[in-house]
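Tokenise the fold.
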Amino acid sequence: MRNRVASLEKDAGPDDEGPRDEVRGTRLVGKALNLIDLIAASPGEHRAQSLADELGLPRSTAYRIINTLQQRGLVRVDAAGQGYFPGFKFLEYAQAVWPIPDLPMLAMTEIRWLHELSGETVYFAAPGGASMIILQKIVSLYAVSTGAPLGSLRPFYCSGMGKAHLAALAPAQREALIGRMSFERVTDRTITDPTQLRSQLNVFRLRGYAIDDEEFMEGVRCVSAAVPGDGDVPIGAFTVSGPCYRMTLERAHQLGPEVATAARRLGEAMGRRGGTRPRGRPDGGEMPLASSARSFLGKSPSWDAETSSLLWLDALAPAIMRSRDEEPTAPPRSEVMARFTSPAMALTSMGEGHWFVATEKGAMTVDRDARLTPLSLELSPEVLAGITCACQGRDGQIWLGVGETSGPQIRPGLYRLIDGEAVLEAELPSAPTDILIDSSGRHLYAALRDAGDIVRFRIGPGNEPGSPELVARVDALHGRPMALALEKPDHLWVALWDGWSLARLRRDGSDTRLLSLPVPRPTGLTFGGRDGDLLYVTSGRIGLTPQQIAESPTSGNVFALDGRLRAALLR
């Protein structure tokens, strides 16, 4: 039995019709719209008789409606097959759907650029109701690709374009939308927890781009950026979409700044205030700085309570930097405490005004007067080349984090300096980027950036580490764990490389919260200050693109966050 589109009105009678060249009456409007729906659903497949049959209309009525729609440009006929198609007038209407009629047309310039850059499917979408609506696209060059018809809807909470839009909104507008969402699960990776979504959006807002990691469609990953409009009201979003085996997370992060650049250019072309929003505090204030100097790769901060000074490494300058917290200047003045001729990779306090420092050419101690003293026994070049971090144990011995080197006997793991020799105590799957031992001396924590893991070892009576236990695994969407700091009574802080943020969690790995930063690459953490309440955060600018540096001009600085500010920024 033929399916028919139900008509809610009786067929038109003489009173419903006017002149033959014009259709009048509200009942006939409904019939005309049903006819357009049929033609749009199956372009070229219908003739007048089949349309009349589907709608249950007399053939004469169907002809009069079609004739009027043709005259208005809403229906056109295929001369070869005599089938009906939607008319070109709809293209004009489509351009006028949005408050900015030229928006879809201007977006094509950036869509083509992103398509040539990535080879993947590129979309431009604009917000409409509770979803993003796809307005323009270019399909991937690859045989296996992703695709969605123009006019398709994508939910705000589980699509890249939707999350980019939410992240760019002012907090009040964002919360209003989140409060109306149903958070239905679309795939196994769909985020259905509003709190988790808010944390993710804070990271995306600071990065300038969002990622959909198989949250709307299994096997498909997308990277998106919102087009800035007036104030905090984005006018659309670009998305680059591809299958996960091509669109890896690493590639998505590589494309992210490019998508953000395209979005900014379109915003400027539309006469809006372009540019990625300034990285900073939600209240518009600047993040407090602990030094006047910028490092290429700051790391290993260490607080000296005796002199109220902060020490840290510029690993690639290379030098030990020092900032004294004694003058009422903002930020405090910095000085070069000691220079080296090779990259400096680790610095840790040994107490009583001395620090252990390791460079690629040697390990030594340094005192407050910058006097350098080589270790009594030299470490092998293979060990020195692999050192990534260091900390002091409860017995005063130095622990080293070491990565892969050219030496066949040197394996990634934890080493302890015993009688001047580096002894392997525990192997690790990858190089630790930071290690620390708690105040009791019973636990050693390690950040494994490449694996995304934070692990903990229980240290036995003889200082031997037990088996590693996983404390937390950081989703790559939030960055990678780079550095650690412990805060009493029970919190662990983690610097997230390429994450524009810090994470705070309990030492058992629970209750994770994020704190947004104005820089993408925090590199080191330590507590200090006159009352011990300041969290110092070093950062780096090496490896950032010119665009990223322009968006994070304070990259390479050291930040100082007191307890009140940390509480205000945690999400």
Q: What stands out?
A: The chain has a mean pLDDT of 84. Residues 249-269 form the longest helix (21 residues). The chain has twelve helices and 31 strands. The two ends are 58 Å apart (CA to CA).
